[in-house]
Amino acid sequence: MTNAGLIIRTLQSAGVQRLFGMPGGGSNADLIEAARLAGLPFTLAHTETAAAFMATAQAEITGRPGACLATLGPGAASLMNGVANAFLERAPLIVLTDCQPGRMQHQVLPQSEIFEPVVKWTGRPTADEAPQALACALEAAETFPPGPAHIDLSSDVTNAPAREHAPRSRSAHAMAPAAIPPIVAEARRPLFLVGLGGRMKNIAALCERFSIPALVTYKAKGVVPDRCPWFGGVFTNGTLEREIIERADLLIAVGLDPVELIPRPWNFRQPVVSLAAGPMRQSQIPLAAALTGDVSGLLASLPLGPSEWRREEVEDLAAKQRARMRPPGNGLVPHRVVDIAAEVYEGARITVDAGAHMFPVMALWPASQPNGVLISNGLSTMGFALPAAIGAALLDRAKPVIAFTGDGGLLICLAELRTAARENVPVRVIVFDDGDLTLIKVKQQQRGYAPDGVRIGEIDWQSVSSGLGVRAHCCTTEEELRGALRESAGHAGPVLIAARISTATYQATLQALRG
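User: That's the sequence. What structure does it adopt?
Assistant: Structure tokens below.
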């Protein structure tokens, strides 16, 4: 066995489901061939960043590392946005890049130095060091907080015979029992704030058992289903959720990571008790106590009792939030696109791109399971939704995945429509088509500026999609949209649905969310 074969076998043992990339020669070819021989599928992406998004989506869904590869020089440089996304989304990702052996200079960049600020480990091993380097990368990627790790591999390393090595084992870090502060037992109206580190399934049961409502961050959508009577709304550190927070006397942050929050000062008066898998470096949230360890175990150990919250009160507060995200408007307005898609594709997993459309989607989509909504939140990058949907759909081809994107975000990763067609995955790409970078336009207008540099223009989505092998529909009314969604429901491959929307309600939406 060569080192390439050993690397692939180790990745499989770690739970990697598929390898993604835009390959070159050198070590890339060795790894792809080794993956073929080992039965690990490889998916060709059309940008390196998209490959990282696809792998990251699989990591978030499975809880095990994703893996992507890129060639040296321009390929490695093009990976940066995808690696940065995994870093700020706390997703375990193994990044494999090619490099020149010896002292060559053609296409040579300081790749380890480029990635070092946004990875948890980076290395360029010799042939003898390759097994240990991969073990270090996996350990770093999966240790709290999870994130990307990078290995530079030249072809003389991947082609070298593999040396025997001890099986990888995860290190166990013993933690002292958490000292739970008295304010937990004394609270009469506690409120859960569930973040990306709290994506487990027992929180909804706790809400029901103790009559405690929960707010969820974008990354935690679905942990407490939107239709659960104790779902209190989405938490962003914004304005929309303020009323329910003001009625609480204790905030229990479950896996809440400040990377998820709007970057504005924390101005809530209630004490905050944090439950997290490990210590976090942060200064945004003033904590009364920080308990670290197994989050499920920490939750089970809390001295909770029946609260003074009333079910009807929580349901009314959540309904008021949703109502504010449905301002009146003429034509095909963004929140109706979300509502109609939910009618047809109830229970589907969705991916969401950054942009103005993101706000009604995240507030109104009725998520029902953890990781049922995938979004770039910490980084908030455009161009994420389509590649992430492809990665998700490749884990389960039986269930459609809905990608909500703006026209600007889709143009960034347009070539991945060809990836979706080639893989024949059941992805439904819903484009909020308005011809502008609308969120930036709204922000310009709020500051009294002219809306300059944000016009995209008209796009013939049917022609573009058809040329890439994807069925497309263009809709201007609710009836047309509903019909296109219903017609697409039974289609085995990808479908693009361009909804020509009115943007008149976005100002009110943004005001409701952020004040």
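The chain has a mean pLDDT of 94.
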